[in-house]
Amino acid sequence: MSLCSLLRSFAVVIMFSAAPSQTLAQSQGSSGGPSGAGTLDSDQPIDISADNLEVLQDKNLAIFTGNVIAVQGGINLRAEQLRVWYRPSSAKANSGGKGESTIIRIDAINKVFVSTETETAQGNLGIYDVADQLLTLTGTVILTRGESVLRGKKLVMNMATGQSRISGGRVHGRFVPPKRTSK
């Protein structure tokens, strides 16, 4: 497993914490995302539960707080808070209809933990800028896949290009090759 494919796979997992389902489908197709039980199926609904939800329409912001849990297929997200910034639909304003809003940014805040059956990602803050397709995870960042682990202070990944950077002090990686079977 190459470092690039490991980071891309983690980014798809992390991005669940910060992306609308249509963006997830696009990124998985282009990033070689995870496969197996943890694969994100963007056709599945996203279920979000939290202790509270506050919608600030004048700021185009929805805030889920307290034990936030979001699930889509085999992808799970936990955080203390999830902030979703959106742009109201122009169709709604123009036609009086029920146009859908466009999500422009999502922040997962405090004790961010994202997991699939085979991968986990954690940090203190996860930010996904939908327009720029930039994913940033900060704090004590720990990424795992099987026995392989990456640690750093900040992960920034361009979901369009797959380019990623882990920075902020010393970066540590432990890469465990797959076990080979004897002949």
Secondary structure blueprint with pairings:
Elements: H1 3-15, H2 21-31, E1 47-49, E2 52-56, E3 61-72, E4 75-87, H3 90-95, E5 102-115, E6 119-129, E7 134-145, E8 148-158, E9 164-167, E10 172-174
Antiparallel strand pairs: 1-3, 2-3, 3-4, 4-5, 5-6, 6-7, 7-8, 8-9, 8-10
Give an overview in words.
The protein is of the alpha+beta class and 183 residues long. Helices cover 16% and strands 48% of the residues. It is built from 3 helices and 10 strands, in the order ααββββαββββββ. Strands 1, 2, 3, 4, 5, 6, 7, 8, 9 and 10 form a 10-stranded antiparallel sheet that branches. A hairpin with a 4-residue loop joins strand 6 (119-129) and strand 7 (134-145). Helix 1 (3-15) runs antiparallel to helix 2. The two termini are 22 Å apart. Residues 1-40 have low confidence and may be disordered.
The proportion of residues in beta strands is over 45%
CATH architecture assignment: Sandwich
Q: Give average pLDDT, whole number.
A: 75
Order of helices and strands: HHEEEEHEEEEEE
CATH-assigned homologous superfamily: Lipopolysaccharide (LPS) transport protein A like domain
User: How many strand segments?
Assistant: 10
Contiguous low-pLDDT stretches (5 residues minimum) are 1-40
The figure for the number of domains is 1
Content-based structural category? alpha+beta
Overall shape: globular
